[in-house]
TrEMBL record, chain A:
Transmembrane segments: 269-291, 312-337, 372-390
Protein name, as recorded: ABC-type lipoprotein release transport system permease subunit
Biological process per Gene Ontology, one example term: lipoprotein localization to outer membrane
Record membrane topology: Multi-pass membrane protein
From TrEMBL, chain B:
SMART domains referenced in this protein's UniProt entry, alphabetically: AAA
Native species: Tenacibaculum adriaticum
Presence of the UniProt keyword Lipid metabolism in the record: no
Name this protein carries in UniProt: Putative ABC transport system ATP-binding protein
Gene Ontology CC terms: membrane protein complex; plasma membrane
Membership in a protein family: Belongs to the ABC transporter superfamily. Macrolide exporter (TC 3.A.1.122) family.
Keywords per UniProt: ATP-binding, Nucleotide-binding, Transport
Gene Ontology MF annotations: ATP binding; ATP hydrolysis activity; transmembrane transporter activity
């Protein structure tokens, strides 16, 4: 009965209800599309960055992250790979041997990051071969050439086909040294990586470090929309947790996570302002609804309707108006996002160059994560509930005689 | 001996007691017995509506007490008072009595739903009441589709829905034409006679006064006269 009464009440003034619901519709639509866009940009940024660096998750020998030494490596384990790939959310795995060494060419010497990689697997994930600006990409795990970040090559003043000398520490305190032909130069968006990285085929790296079949990490790539926390827990449970540790990119690159958090807070403030503005419209409607029905509310109290039931009817009316706008906004948002997912925004001109500079795909994807829709619906629901408090309070203070005579 | 259904004991009501006090009702003492058909009359501002509201528990007296069927309603907390009204008192107001978005049937059934009466029983009662007020063909009409007289008849049906002991009517015929007023009064008189429901009207409508068996006249918030008469 109360639901029916509330529903009928909101349609007493159709135009006003529709205008209010429309304002909620636009707020929800804008909030969803905006959130979808920003989340899409973040997801893409994370995907791009983690594919070159850590992966979404990384498996190490237990204790490696606290003491990042080649002595804390682990043996390549096909069973571990199988366990990881069993999970349907895992799209790729990338075994790596990551060390630091001194790189020398002619009279120049520099500390570098040596990444022993499986060139084929990396190619599948991050299209590393496409970033080659000079020379060629390494093709197999036992290729004898290396690929250098373009910034590093420039600092060492070397070119393709020059010979790079690397000197570092090998497994169990052995010395690691070798001469490698520079097969190609690669331009990476991440400046630090571009100025410091040497990509080396995995077997060559293992051989140089006296660490045959050993790895520092297995990077795990996932579908963009995967819930990282849940998957981390799930993988932790699936592998031998006494031997391995699982770290997420958030733990390995906290600065990027903090940047996204801070940026996201800014966006939340914008969405908050949007909702704040429409709240006034909704609040105005609710106040009008109570003031123009004061006489009727008085009669209802007189005939025996408890004030709290009346306040509840007003709450229902507020929620109904909001939800009409909200559901329409969610449907509108879904359709808009669906369209943008099929037709993502391809950046052009200077913006495209800036994105490429930073190694990020110059395409703006939209996120369709369900949390975006659920969050906006909850926000509207909470907002309409809060806004109904004041009319509810007015009803609780209503004196039937005064109301009837109004 | 008939049972006292309303006992207003030394009831007073003063508006704006701290600024410019207006003594709307002063030390009024009224006993109304079960089954009476009483008109509370007097000029505008004489305090008849205020007294009626206090008797119905819609307004609190500044002094004195109101006892309805043995319950001192002036002492009841708000929720209990609302509940008491729901089960014991029916109201008919001057106009705009009904919920405009509900049909006649729903308006009458609303009170019964508040009483949590089962659906089948409720529907039967609503139909009976609307038949009694001669609106069985208008059960699905909304107030906007009914005439003023028909709306007041629905209001009477609603007031009687919960089988109250008393019905308080504040100027129920004020906005009705003669025929509708006559019709409404006949229905109320019939219900009073057949179901022994006590009716108390606040009115200055001579048509109502003529139908009453007892007429209490208020002047300046005090009872000027209280006489029994033979209704015409």
């Amino acid at each position: 009965m109360l639901l029916k009464l509330a529903w009928l009440n909101i349609w007493r003034n159709k135009r006003r209800t529709l205008i209010t619901a429309t304002s909620v519709f636009f707020a929800v639509l804008l909030a969803i599309v905006f959130r979808s866009l920003t989340d899409g940009v973040y997801d893409n940024m994370i995907h791009n960055v983690v594919s070159y660096s850590s992966g979404y998750l990384q498996i190490h020998k237990k204790g490696y992250w606290d003491e990042q030494s080649i002595d804390n490596t682990f043996e390549e384990d096909e069973q571990l790979y199988q366990e990881l790939l069993k999970n349907q959310k895992v799209t790729h795995i990338m075994p790596r041997l990551q060390t630091f060494a001194l790189a020398s060419y002619a009279e120049k010497t520099k500390g570098v990051l040596v990444l022993g990689i499986d060139p084929v697997k990396e190619k599948e994930v991050n299209n590393l071969h496409d970033k080659i600006i000079e020379g060629e990409y390494i093709e197999t795990i036992n290729d004898n050439g290396v690929v250098l970040g373009e910034g590093l090559a420039s600092q060492l003043k070397l070119n393709v086909n020059d010979t790079l000398v690397l000197l570092g520490q090998g497994y169990h305190a052995s010395s690691a040294a070798g001469k490698f032909r520079v097969k190609g130069l690669i331009k990476l968006g991440a400046i630090e990586l571009n100025n410091n990285v040497v990509y080396m085929p995995l077997q060559q790296s293992q051989y140089m470090h006296g660490a045959d079949h050993r790895l520092t990490s297995v990077s795990v790539m996932l579908d963009k929309a995967t819930n990282l926390k849940k998957l981390k827990q799930s993988l932790q449970g699936a592998i031998n947790s006494d031997a391995y540790e699982v770290l997420s990119w958030k733990e390995m690159m906290p600065e990027m996570d903090q940047y996204i958090e801070a940026d996201s807070t800014g966006h939340n403030i914008i969405i908050g302002i949007l909702y704040f503005v429409i709240s006034f419209g909704l609040f105005g409607t609710l106040l009008m609804m109570i003031f123009e029905r004061k006489h009727e509310l008085g009669i209802l109290i007189a005939v025996g309707m408890k004030k709290r039931l009346l306040a509840f009817v007003l709450l229902l009316e507020s929620i109904m108006i909001s939800l009409i706008g909200c559901f329409a906004g969610v449907i509108g948002g879904m359709l808009t996002i669906k369209w943008f997912m099929v037709h993502p925004i391809n950046l052009t001109g200077d913006l495209k160059k800036v994105y490429e500079e930073y190694g990020i795909e110059p395409i703006i994807y939209f996120s369709s994560h369900e949390k975006i829709f659920i969050t906006q619906t909850l926000v509207v629901l909470i907002l309409s509930t809060l806004l109904a408090f004041y009319p509810g309070y007015k009803v609780m203070r209503l004196k039937p005689v005064e109301a009837i005579n109004s | 001996m008939a049972k006292t259904i309303i006992d207003a004991h030394n009831v007073s009501k003063t508006f704006n007691p701290k600024t410019i006090p207006v003594h709307a009702v002063q030390n009024v003492h009224v006993h109304i017995e079960e089954g009476e058909f009483v008109a509370l009359v007097g000029p505008s501002g004489s305090g008849k509506s205020t007294l009626l509201n206090m008797m119905g528990g819609l307004d609190e007296p500044t002094a004195g007490s109101v006892i309805i069927d043995g319950v001192e309603i002036t002492e009841l907390p708000e929720n209990k008072l609302i509940d008491f009204r729901l089960h014991n008192i029916g109201f008919v107001f001057q106009s705009f009595n009904l919920i405009p978005v509900l049909t006649a049937k729903e308006n009458v059934g609303f009170v019964l739903q508040l009483q949590k009466m089962p659906k089948k029983e409720r529907e039967e009662r609503v139909l009976t009441l609307l038949k009694e007020v001669g609106l069985e063909d208008k059960i699905n009409s909304k107030p906007g589709q009914l005439s003023g007289g028909q709306q007041q008849r629905v209001a009477v049906a609603r007031a009687l829905a919960s089988k109250p002991k008393i019905v308080l009517a504040d100027e129920p015929t004020a906005n009705l034409d003669s025929k509708s007023a006559e019709n409404l009064l006949n229905i109320m008189a019939k219900l009073n006679k057949e179901e022994k429901i006590t009716f108390l009207f606040s009115t200055h409508d001579q048509r109502v006064i003529r139908k009453a068996r007892r007429v209490i006249t208020l002047v300046d918030g005090k009872i000027a006269s209280d006489v029994e008469q033979t209704p015409s």
